[in-house]
Amino acid sequence: MTRLRFGTGGIPRPITTGILDAIPWLEQNNLHCMELEFVHSTWLKEEAAEELKKQAKKADVTLTAHGSYYINLNAAEEKKREASRNRVIGAAHRTWQAGGESVTFHPAFYLKQDPEKVYAQVKEQMKLILQELHNEGVDITISPETTGKPTQMGTYEELCKLASELEGMSICVDFAHLHARTNGAYNTYEEYSKVLETVENYLGKERLRNMHIHLSGIEYGPKGEKNHLTCVESDMNWDALFKAFKDYSVGGCVISESPIIEEDALWMKKKYEGI
Ligand SMILES: [Zn+2]
After folding, report:
1. Which of 68, 87, 239, 267 would suit a FRET pair with 135, their CA atoms being 20 to 30 Å apart?
2. Residue 61: enclosing H or E segment and its boundaries?
C-alpha cells in the first residue's frame, strides 16, 4: 500500500536540545518525516548528519530539507546566480549526507520578465546544479517548490514541465501556496485532482507515490501569500484535499509548515486517516 508520511518542517518545538533529540521524539509521536530548515544557513555539521542518518533509518523517519531563502536562479548577475546555485548544492550535499531524499527551495523571481524567458534561465541554472551534484556523487532529488506569490517563479505547471525535462529533478507541491498565489483558488476536490493529474501526466505514477508536499493554513490577498496559519484557523478545504490524496494514492512526505508544526502534523495525520 502506498504510504503517506506526516512530519514537521523543522525540529518539533518541544525539542530544545538539538537535532539529535528530534528523531526519538518523532518516533514516539508516530510522525515519520522531518524537514531540515536550512533557510538561513546549512547549519548541520557533517558528523551530526552521519549520526542523524543512522537514527532516521532506525526510526523509519524520512528526511527532506528546505534550502536557503536567498536564492534567485533568475538573478541578473552571474555572480548572484552562482551564489544561488552554490546554496542549493551545499544544502543538497549535506542533506544527502544525512540520508535525506529531497531538497526544496523557492527557485526564482520573474523580475517582471516574460515567464518563458525566466523558465529558460532557471532550466539552465538547474542543469548546472544537477551536473555539479552528479560530479560530487550526490544522489538526491532536487524539488523546487510551488511558490506563494505571483511575483515568484513556480506555478505547478512550470515546475512539473521543468522536472519532466531534467533527470534528478522533481517538484515540491505546497498546496497552501497554490491557494494563496491564486488569491483563493485551488481549494476544491476538482482543483486538487487537477494538480495531482498534472504531476502524473508529466512525471508518472511513480512520482505520485513518492511526493514532497508542504501543507499549512495560509492567509493571502491579491499579492498572494501573507503568512502561514494553523490548520483550523485557515480556509483550506482539508477534507477535499485528503480525499484527493487517497483517491490518487498519493505517497511520500507531507511536511507541516503551520506555526504549530508538530501539533498540526498530528492534526493532519489524524484528519487524513479519518477520511
Ligand atoms: Zn512550503
Report:
1. 68
2. none
Q: What's the CA-to-centroid distance between 213 and ligand 1, angstroms?
A: 8
Contact call for residues 111 and 74 (beta carbons, < 8 A): yes
DSSP 40: S
Per the structure, the complete domain to which residue 144 belongs is given by 4-274
Domain count, the chain: 1
CA distance 65 to 239: 27
Angle between helices 261-274 and 238-247 (to 10 degrees): 60
Three-class SS of 72-134: CCCCCCHHHHHHHHHHHHHHHHHHHHCCCCEEECCCEECCCCCHHHHHHHHHHHHHHHHHHHH
Residue 214 C-alpha to ligand 1 middle, in angstroms? 5
Contact by Cβ (8 Å): 125, 85: yes
Helix axis angle, 78-97 to 115-135, nearest 10°:
50
Q: How far is the CA of 187 from the centre of ligand 1 (A)?
A: 16
- Residues 95 and 233: their CA atoms lie apart, in Å, by 32
Question: How many Å lie between the centroid of ligand 1 and the Cα of residue 145?
Answer: 7
User: Average of pLDDT values for 60-65?
Assistant: 98
User: pLDDT, tens digit, for every residue of 135-155?
Assistant: 999 999 999 999 999 999 999
CA of 173 to the centre of ligand 1 (A): 8
Ligand 1 centroid to residue 57 C-alpha, Å: 24
CATH code for the domain of 49: 3.20.20.150
Q: pTM of the prediction? A: 0.97
